[in-house]
Design brief:
By secondary structure, the protein is mainly α. Helices cover 75% and strands 0% of the residues. The protein is extended. The N terminus is likely disordered.
């Protein structure tokens, strides 16, 4: 009997090793030798820090004036090319306007050349950039509904015209963003100077 009581007492007062390792009913902490599993929160935190560092690096590159000019040049490239080609071959520009059934084809061709070249020059130079961007956006929107009415074209020719329609809508959105950014930059800077502290970075 005495031996039995001693065995029971030992089992009660000294918890099993598996309870120590597993953090089981004994209430003891897990063994120090067992590594803690990574939690989803720590992984998300590392991902957030990495994205933040990447965004800061991209911002540093995007604010370089030469990079911004190259981006704007890419946006205006089709208009510069189209305006120069029409200027060199004005007869072809008039024929193109007539092809779409537009009245006063020579005047339309001339206005198109002025819009593409002068509007692009305003956007690239930064002089009334918002005006040049809105000018080209309006012109592109009108030209899209004149030249890319895909709903009137049967398949299979409709596919390419439909793509061109939505691509031009994308250009309209891009120029609207350029105008919005330029106006925000201009008036935020004026307000900052009025308050004695600039709100935006050049």
């Amino acid at each position: 009997m005495t031996i039995g009581y001693l065995l029971v007492d030992r089992a009660v007062t000294q918890p099993a090793q598996h309870a120590i390792d597993c953090g089981g009913p004994s209430g003891l902490a897990p063994s120090a030798t067992r590594p803690a599993a990574a939690t989803p929160t720590s992984s998300a935190s590392r991902w957030t820090r990495w994205v933040d560092r990447f965004a800061r690096a991209i911002y540093g590159v995007a604010t370089v004036p030469a990079i911004r000019f190259i981006a704007l040049l890419g946006l205006c490239a089709a208009y510069l090319q189209g305006g120069l080609v029409k200027l060199v071959d004005f007869g072809g520009a008039v024929t193109e306007a007539q092809h779409f059934g537009l009245p006063f084809a020579p005047a339309i061709a001339g206005a198109t050349i002025v819009t593409e070249l002068v509007g692009s020059a305003l956007v690239l130079s930064g002089v009334y950039r918002w005006l040049g961007a809105l000018w080209i956006a309006g012109f592109t929107l009108i030209a899209t509904f004149v030249a890319n009415r895909f709903w009137e074209i049967p398949q299979p020719d409709r596919f390419m015209v439909e793509n061109a329609f939505f691509e031009h809508l994308g250009l309209v959105g891009a120029f609207l963003l350029v105008a919005w950014y330029d106006l925000q930059h201009k008036y935020s800077r004026q307000i900052g100077e009025r308050n004695g502290r600039p709100l935006v970075r050049d």
